[in-house]
């Protein structure tokens, strides 16, 4: 019996990993996909044509970058749907608007007109009954110091030279955002409760929780359908 069967995780599941920059989403995405034999959907970082320019000048590039991320994530979403699920997704589409676009608008690095244009497009594309929401959003959380250490250690130059205040504000916004998030079921995991770098088996307790959560929410959905 493989791990997916052992923990009763449906093979059409769509699981998205959320959390602030550097918390460990990509690492978790790879570990879960590997354990479940699922496909992965990663966000574009190295081949992103706006990201470095954005970090050098938020005001000039924030709207362009949000449009780029929205288009890329929407294409990924379409692919996931066409494959019929069985995916782990690195960062949810909800974070683009709930965290990044809003933060830049609130700080004056995205204009009101650009923010409204972006929000209208996002709502028309994503906040509709036709958009398939994930079965589960796994929210990774840890202390701010751990997150900052990981950003430094990973060593992307554009992130290392960004003021700490930017990461701190983002960290605090994530806490508020997740406490009010309700687009799909959430599983919160603290990064000090596992260590995927040292111990590959530390993914198993997470798989057990995933299986339990998805079974429970699918039972709930089935009951709602026959009401
Ligand atoms: N469980 C872990 N223990 C220690 N270091 C980790 C762990 N998960 C990720 N890292 C390290 O932290 C950094 C950021 O991880 P990454 O998965 O790229 O984060 P994200 O995708 O959330 O930005 C990387 O250097 C990665 O190797
Ligand atoms: N929607 C976004 N707006 C601005 N910046 C973003 C957005 N989504 C991701 N990013 C940035 C943050 C990081 O520098 C890289 C990759 O994110 P990570 O959390 O390391 O996967 O892109």
Automatic annotation (TrEMBL):
GO terms for cellular component: cytoplasm. PANTHER family: DEOXYADENOSINE KINASE, DEOXYNUCLEOSIDE KINASE. GO terms for molecular function: ATP binding; deoxynucleoside kinase activity. This is Deoxyadenosine/deoxycytidine kinase. InterPro entries: DCK/DGK (IPR002624), Deoxyribonucleoside_kinase (IPR050566), DNK_dom (IPR031314), P-loop_NTPase (IPR027417). The active site is at residue 90. Keywords: ATP-binding, Kinase, Nucleotide-binding, Transferase. Residues 15-214 form the Deoxynucleoside kinase domain. ATP binds at residues 19-27, 150-154. Belongs to the DCK/DGK family. It comes from the Bacteria. Substrate binds at residues 43, 55, 66, 91, 96, 159.
């Amino acid at each position: 019996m493989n791990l997916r069967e052992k923990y009763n995780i449906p093979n059409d599941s769509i699981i998205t990993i959320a959390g602030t920059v550097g918390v460990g989403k990509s690492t978790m995405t790879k570990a879960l996909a590997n354990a479940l034999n699922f496909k992965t959907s990663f966000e574009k970082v190295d081949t992103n044509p706006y990201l470095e320019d954005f970090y050098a000048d938020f005001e000039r590039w924030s709207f362009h970058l949000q449009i780029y991320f929205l288009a890329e994530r929407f294409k990924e979403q379409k692919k996931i749907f066409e494959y019929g699920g069985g995916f782990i997704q690195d960062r949810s589409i909800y974070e683009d608007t709930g965290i990044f676009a809003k933060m830049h608008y609130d700080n004056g690095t995205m204009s009101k007109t650009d923010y409204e244009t972006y929000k209208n497009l996002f709502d028309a594309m994503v906040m509709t009954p036709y958009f398939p929401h994930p079965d589960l959003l796994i929210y990774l959380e840890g202390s701010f110091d751990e997150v900052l250490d990981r950003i430094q250690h990973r060593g992307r130059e554009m992130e290392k030279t960004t003021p700490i205040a930017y990461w701190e504000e983002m960290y605090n916004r994530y806490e508020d955002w997740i406490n009010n998030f309700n687009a799909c079921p959430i599983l919160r995991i603290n990064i000090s409760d596992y260590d995927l770098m040292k111990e590959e088996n530390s993914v198993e307790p997470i798989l057990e929780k995933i299986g339990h959560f998805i079974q429970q929410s699918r039972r709930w959905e089935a009951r709602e359908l026959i009401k």
